[in-house]
Protein: DUF4190 domain-containing protein
Amino acid sequence: MSTENTVADRLLEDARKKTAKSESPVLGKVALIVGAIALLVSPISIVGWIVGAAAIGLGVAAVRRPAAAKQAKIAMVLGGAAILVGVFFFTLNVALS
Structure:
């Protein structure tokens, strides 16, 4: 009978960990930081594209978590802006060459 209680405790602990993980805003913060870095490095065209795409990907993953939704949306906007700035500088570089 004590084994049933142990199984129930383990299931309850797993459910608590899963809930705590979905309520954690860490992924949203990481996406926001990567989005800001993407915007800073976006004048270097290819690096801006790669880091911008990473910010968008992290933002999409984080937007599913309610605690990080706002930060994730901002990160996706920053990643998209970084890609656009990278395209602008790439086009400018090609036009001046």
